[in-house]
Amino acid sequence: MLKYILLLLLTTAVCGQDFSHYYYYTGKEYGSESQYNPVSLILNGSFDILQLQPAMRDVRTIDFATGTTNVWRNLSDPFTNINKYGWWKFLRREVFPLDWSKQGKQWWPNYQLHLIGGGMEYRAMAEYFDYHGYPYPKTFSVLTMAAFQLLNEITENNSTVGTNVDPISDFWIFDIGGVLLFSNEEVCRFFSEDLNLADWSLQPGLTVPGWKVHNVGQNFSIKVKTPLSEKIRFFYYCGLNGLTGASLPTGPETNLSIGIGLRAKNQINIDNMNEKSVETVWNVGLFYDRNNSLLASLFLSGMTDYFITANVYPGFVELGKIKPGLWLVLKQNGSSIIGISTNYVFNIGVDTER
C-alpha cells in the first residue's frame, strides 16, 4: 500500500492541480459524455473482461479474494516474478512490439488500452472532477484510476494462483506511463484535437433474473482527417473490439461512422505461466455521435450471446425534460436482454434467456 501512496503523492506533485483547458470532458448533457463519471468508469473498466463469451458474468462467481492476493503478490514483487517468467519473453511480449505472433502480442492492448486509453481516462476524469468543483481533481482522478485498474487486474486474474506478469506490465509500466504521458498538455491536445480520441464505452447493466453483468465494456474512438476528402475521416474503434472504417458528417455537429473488424470472444491459456490470449470473431459496428459524444451504436458480430447489440444514449431521444437511455442485446437463439440506463448505478435489464 505504501507504494501506491508514494505513487499518488509523486503524480500529484508532478502534475499539479490546475487546468488551462478541457480536452475530454466539457459537461455535455447528451450522449456517452452525459454518463461519464467515476462510477461508470470503474464499472466499465473493472469488468471489461466480462463481455467475453462464455465469461462468468455473475460477479458473485468471481474469486475476488484469490485475485486480490495473487495480483498483490505479483505487483509487490515484480522482479522475482519476471525472473520466473523470463526477462526476454516479458520484454518482447509485454513491453516492446517485438513479438507479432497471436500468442505474443500482449503488448498491443498495453499500448492501446493502458497507455493511451488509460492516460486519456486519467485526464478526462481529472477534468470531470475540476468541472464539478472538486478540490484536487488530479489527485481524485489518480485514486479513481488506481481503483478501476486494480479491480480490472483482480477480475482478470480471478482464481489464478502463481506468477502472472500481465498486471506487472499493465500497472507498473503502462498505467503509470499513461498518467505521466497525459500530464503533458501537448499530448492531450494532439490526441483530442488531431485524433479526436473519445471514450465511447457501453452502458453496463445488472440483469434479472440471475443478477449478471451485461453490456459492459470500455471502448475508445478515433477519427482522423484523410487526404482523400475534407469530409471523410479515417475511423478506428477499440477495446475488446478492433474496428476500422470511415466517419462522415451528417450535420454541423453530428457524424455517422462505420467500422468492420474483430472482437474478442474467448480467453484461452497459452502456456503454463498463466499467460492468456483471446479467440476472435468478426464484428461490424455503426455509430452516431454529436460533437464526439456517442448518441447511438449498433453491433453485429459472430458472438452467439451478443449477436446484435444496440445502445441508445441519453439525448438521442428527448421526451420533454426526460432523456432516456436504452440498450438491447439479441442472441442467436432468439432470446434477448433489454435495459434502461441511468447515470450513477448499475443499469437494470431483463434477460429472457431460453
Give a written overview of the molecule.
The chain folds into two domains: 2-194, no CATH class; 198-351. The model has no long low-confidence stretch (mean pLDDT 89). It contains ten helices and 13 strands. Strands 1-4-5-6-7-8-9-10-11-12-13-2-3 form a 13-stranded mixed β-sheet. The protein is an alpha+beta fold. Helix 7 (107-131) crosses helix 9 (166-181).
Work out the helicity level: 25-40%
Q: What is the averaged pLDDT score?
A: 89
Distance between the termini: 46 Å
SSE succession? HHHHHHHHHHEEEEEEEEEEEEE
Question: How many individual β-strands?
Answer: 13
- DSSP strand content: 25-35%
Strand order of the largest sheet: 1-4-5-6-7-8-9-10-11-12-13-2-3
What ranges have pLDDT less than 50 throughout 5 or more consecutive residues?
A: none
Described by strand count, sense and barrel closure, the largest sheet is:
13 strands, mixed
Spatial extent as radius of gyration: 20 Å
How many domains in all? Answer: 2
Helix and strand content put the structural class at alpha+beta
Global outline: globular
| Discrete helix count | 10
